[in-house]
Amino acid sequence: MTDMQDLSRAVRELENLLAKCTRCGMCQSVCPVYKTTRSESDVSRGKLILLEGLIDGLFEDPEGVNERLNRCLLCGSCESNCPSGVSAVTIFLKARGILTRYMGLSITRKIIFRKMLANPAFFKRLVGAAQRLQPLVLKKDASELGTSCARVTPSFLKSRSGAFRHVVPISDQPFHKTLAGTGKKEVTSAGSLHVVFFTGCLIDGFFPGIARSAIQVFDHYKIGYTIPAQQGCCGIPALASGDTRTFESLVRHHIGLLESLRFDYLVTACATCTSTIKKLWGSMAGDENQVQDPKIRQQIASVAERIVDINWLLLHCTGMNQQDDPDDSLQGCVTYHDPCHLKKSLGISSAPRQVIRAAGYRLREMEAPDTCCGMGGSFNLSYYDISKEIGLKKGENIADTGCDIVATSCPACMMQISDVMASLEHNVQVRHPVELLAQKLSPV
Question: Phi/psi class of residue 168: alpha, beta or left (left: φ > 0; alpha: ψ in -120 to 50)?
């Protein structure tokens, strides 16, 4: 009983945030998980009621509450459409952290997060080892999407219905290995813009072409850049699993890397990294209760102010030639999927579309371009059948446009879309807008 009372007191920290919910049900109309499961407990409103029950001592099953909290994509659809301004994503992340402190992390997650993810150099070596071993597990699909299927049937590569995942394989040349020397390039002319490029895990290991394209674009527009060789994960996988300790460790690691660097902007090509650094580094790892040193709090706030998405940078800080309506005959047509963490979290939707037009493509909008693709990071691993069902709806909307290319600004979304398009047997290229622009600027 004492333990449950302690848990109730801890969850009570969220009481002021929970009080904003008026039970209006607006979240029900926009939640992609609810649209698939039709379960009230999968809606934000249902999860908030569960947390209130913990506070009031109505529930003595924290594991069950945690399970329901984890059945969430953290897409922010509920939060961006809430008339009462309930910070649902923040509440769920804080609650996961509280419940994880109470119940503890599993051995597997402790190893993954605290031994591997928290040590960027070691993590990169492990990814390299996994790349060398993956031919034993994966075989190339017949499609032209560049995905692979399983040679064997481990549970994480197979849905409950028996369908195999189509996975994007680890690149044989991760981006950090292509960097010469320290991975730095200094400003080439006085007064030019200088950025730090934050690569992120998925771009580094799975989509290094995005990072190489970013460098091509920086060079073309004479943007000086620095790429810290010791950078790692932004921390969102650990935070989403309730491991606030690893998350805070990664935030401090990167603040230490950035402390001595002079830059105008910290730039990412990953919507999730941008949103995490801008909104969660401060709120989840930089408040007074967690960080006593005001200098570190100031550094976190300074980084959050200067983090920008690469599409935003190109639109607002370069002389990028924006073509309002390119002809199909120039490059063809592209449809665009809005990542939740870019549009819903940061309000950025026009910039990537302008980058696509600047690359010479006609933009052909799909139906509901800003609905979630169903990836949700670890949600895809734990609830693959739900994730896949949500993703297939997105895939059908993409196929209906008739475009040969779908672009998006999130590498996790690229993974999900690659999987569903391969499942639907549509050989649609999945690209990042900056890749399309770099191809035009430096055609092969």
Answer: beta
Task: Note the pTM of the prediction, 2 decimals.
Answer: 0.92
Q: Tell which residue, 352, 384, 390, 389, has the closest CA to residue 368.
A: 390
315 contact partners, CB below 8 Å, separation of at least 6: 322, 350, 351, 354, 355
The contacts of residue 3 (CB under 8 Å, 6+ apart) are 102
* Spans in the chain with pLDDT lower than 70: 1-2, 142-144, 150-163, 180-191, 286-292, 322-331, 443-444
Strands (E), 194-271: 194-198, 224-226, 265-268
Tell me which residue has tokens 């040969």. 404
Name the packing angle between helices 208-220 and 433-441 (round to 10°). 50
How far is the C-alpha of 26 from the C-alpha of 44, rounded, in Å? 9
Q: Which of 401, 404, 354, 397 is nearest to 373 (CA)?
A: 397
Instruction: Using a pLDDT cut of 90, give the percent of the chain over it.
Output: 69
Four-residue CA torsion sign, 403, 420, 271, 197: negative
